[in-house]
Predict the 3D structure of the following.
Amino acid sequence: MRQLLLLLCLCSLFAAPAAQAVPLTLARHIADDCQQPFTPIYKIQGSGSAAAITGAVTTQGVVVGDYESPGGSGQIRGFYLQDPTGDGDPATSDGIFIFDNGADNVKLGQVVRVSGTAGEYNGQTQISNAKIVQCGVAGTVTPVEITLPLPAADTLERFEGMLVRFPQTLYVTEHYQLGRFGLVVMTSAQDRLRQPTGVVAPGAAARTMQAANNLNRIIVDDAVNDQNPDPIVFGRGGRPLSAGNTLRGGDSATSIVGVLVYDWAGNAASPNAYRVRPVGALGGGLPAFQGSNPRPTAPAEVPGRLRVASVNLLNYFNTFDGLPDNVDNCTNGAGGVATDCRGADTAAEFDRQAVKLVASLLGAGADIIGIAEIENDGYGSDSAIHDLVGRLNAATAPGMYAFIDADTATGQTNALGTDAIKVGLIYKPAKVAPAGRAAALNSAAFVTGGDSAERNRPALAQTFAEAATGERLTVVVNHLKSKGSACDAPDILDGQGNCNKVRTRAAEALVAWLATDPTAAADPDVLILGDLNAYAQEDPVTAIKRAGYTNLIEKFLGDAAYSYAFDGQWGYLDHALASASLTPQVAGVAEWHINADEPSVLDYNTDYKSDGQISSLYAGDLYRAGDHDPTIIGLNLARPVVKPPTSAPPTPTSVPPPPAPPPQSEMPVQTGAAVLIVVAVLALIGALLFVRRQRTAARTRQ
């Protein structure tokens, strides 16, 4: 019996605690702590760009953002605390970040007291080494409203760490990092932010527009700093992103509520910046993104008998380095030096890429296609261009498509240069036939653009005769040096990026070359296509226009046109410029928005994706086949109308034209004079007749 009593006593020592989680004396102690004086958050923040009070502090507030987990380097590992009433001063923030190294200490809406060390960390005010006391009560905070565009670049500093609301409708203007970091950039501009040099002149006007753009954007981020998150939570309708549930540029969300932070996304590729985090925020949650920019299933209707397209293939390579990519199986041109293979890493990726590209090329319905970014490996049976055309024919009918072999046509090896990629021309033999001769602009002046090394890829020109009419058209496809490349002259910060002089000199060389009729077309109708890596108002495009060419996209689509997005700004690098004689024969122009609007994570690549995402983020359709949208031009080719000369110079045998009638005001005076002359002539005639009769009578009398 004694042993049983002893056992019961020992068990009582390890028994579960009573239902009351916190002893009454401890609860009173916590409540007493939360009633003690503290330094308000707004006093710690101050009105400047850095903390007004640093060092040991104690403060208290409501948890408005909980990002304590997951832990690990690069993660947020803390929460945001806000004074529920504030000081009413719009210059001071009422919120602050509490770093607790990922411990799960708080819940949204709790009132807590924090003691720790106040200071700045990467530009954000925070309290570290935090001791946290839960006050046992809940609190509420009303979000402060912020609207875009901001009045000044430093406006958001006063809202750092606070619960905010964007009451207006915001539009997705960038999703480049959606797959990698789970974030988008949004703006109040319904047609999204425009590339300044696409609509205004480089220089002062472009810089002014860029400054305005910078005030009209905000990052909307998820709740974690994971790279390549799974799932990607931002998709339409509050559902995760997938191939069937996209999030396109121009899609929208209204009344986003979240915590405004100054933070990074866990990697230097998305550095410290103001961003709003709606997930994990008090009263926030997943934005209800709306499909404001529907996916187009077909290009806009483009009239005309003949259709021409310009398409950037985004590195169509049928040679692979494999994964991991530690070899160089490709060459710079046929038989050239070894180089890294771009595009697909494996045959499996390539098949996924090819399905999308074939669908997009067939959907464009073009009779002539100018292509850029295809592997530069010749024109043999194992070449990339042979593979692509073979797939097009397999999807339609044998011989439906053919390509221009620039090497054979020009009698040169690597006529289109020794870069890793080149341009090309594909056509439908039933609609057009090559005429004259193919020509490659691969001169040093064009390829170097006046620089110390080769920069631009050679251009390819070919004249085609329309089967139905015999009318001729010369198409020249280009791919000039990119803005991010290194060239001899530095970027002069006028909005045109690096290598602007190289591109401009190449444009001048191009139009001079075309003026020599390099394809022996004997027809002035010329269409310049391709990726000029210059926006509509930049120097290279201006140089071509000054030579008499018309920017067809500008003429038919205006400033709203775009086919490419960079850094959240939209414009077009892919051009269609027509010679003066061809412009009246252009029936229409369209940009088919199947690529630029779609997140890049929906492309063919399999790397940096989970097994589930390799399937869920891919569809064998035409969306995100590349990063540039196809440009489509409709033509009604006709013989040039020869107008008669406005005046012909007189010849020695010509009859002078009658004098022009006098002005109306002179008619009465001249008419009176004419009457007097007539009367005088009649009188003279009468007198002569009288004299003649008198002489006749005299002869009779004799």
